[in-house]
Amino acid sequence: MSQPSTPNFETSSGRRLLPRLAAHLDRLAASFDRIDEGHRKAGERLAAWIAESAGPLHLTVVCTGNSRRSILGATMGNLAAAYCGLPEIRFHSGGTAPTAFYRGTVACLKEIGVEIEPTGEEAPRGEPGTANPVYRVRWGSAGEPPMETLEFSKRYDDPSNPQQGFAALMVCDEADAGCPAVRGAALRLSLPFPDPKTFDQTPEEAIRYAERRDDLGRLMLWVMMRAREQRDRR
Predict the structure, then answer these.
(1) What are phi and psi of 121, to 5 degrees?
(2) Exposure string (b/e) for 173-205, b if CB count within 10 Å is 16 or more?
(3) Domain ranges in the chain?
(4) How many other C-beta atoms lie within 10 A of the C-beta of residue 226?
(5) 140, 18 in Cβ contact below 8 A?
(6) Omega into 146 within 30° of 0, i.e. cis?
(7) Residue 1: alpha-carbon gap to chain centroid
(8) Could you tell me which of 159, 163, 169, 142 has the C-alpha nearest to residue 62?
(9) Sign of the CA dihedral 167, 158, 194, 4?
(10) Beta pairing class for 166-170 and 57-63
(11) Residue 53: which residues within 8 A CB-CB, separation 6 or more?
(12) What is the block-wise mean pLDDT of the chain (234 residues), using blocks of 10 residues?
């Protein structure tokens, strides 16, 4: 499959990205050869859906606990959309059995420059009754549209998430199998990635979370570039 060209988008949203994040996306854009064929095929479908759609678009990234992969995918998707001058595209996250925004997920996003701060509020608890704090996640400077969101663990159909016409991106096998249909979704795609939870509280934890962050970020960036190119050719 064809590779998107190196971006040259001098856009207001790109300029508003926090500098460390823009630099990290520059690095991811140089490693698209690491995206496997299965993810490329699904990514092509997603890019075409975005390119053919008009107006604001919403995508919900879904895993089981909404604590790791779904939050990583949604955050990196928002970064990629801003980087490519597509700020009308907004990513959300959700799960099938919510728990909490895991500390390792917070740490690996902060590592590249995402600003994450607790709001002092707590969302409803899932199983097994783990505290579920609400965080403010920011990836760009002030302006419109806002480059920040409130993030916490929740079901994919939580009222804070889109209810109709969105793309549902299933990033874990368990959620993919458990939700063969996602109510209200205009597009449902299977995009499974290994769970970094396997390495929690081991010497490899930080490395594996960073690896999954970049795997998801690389794919989201590739999709946004493909969608931008297709829109520009119309």
Answers:
(1) -100, 160
(2) eebbeebeebeebebbbbbbbebbbebeeeeeb
(3) 12-233
(4) 23
(5) yes
(6) no
(7) 23
(8) 169
(9) positive
(10) parallel
(11) none
(12) 52 85 96 97 98 93 97 98 94 96 97 98 89 97 92 97 98 88 95 96 97 98 96 85
**Which of 83, 86, 75 minimizes the C-alpha distance to 151?**
75
Assigned token pair, 204: 């490899």
What span, in angstroms and rounded, lies between the C-alpha atoms of 169 and 188? 6
Report pLDDT for 12: 67
Radius of gyration of the chain (CA): 16
**Distance between alpha carbon 89 and the CA centroid of its chain, in Å?**
11
CB distance 154 to 160 below 8 Å: yes
What pTM value is reported for the model?
Answer: 0.94
- For the record, the structure tokens of 151 come out as 């993030």
Write out the CATH class of domain 12-233.
alpha beta
C-beta pairs of 174-180 under 8 Å, 24+ apart in sequence: 174/63, 174/64, 174/96, 175/62, 175/63, 175/64, 175/95, 175/96, 178/64, 178/96, 179/62, 179/96
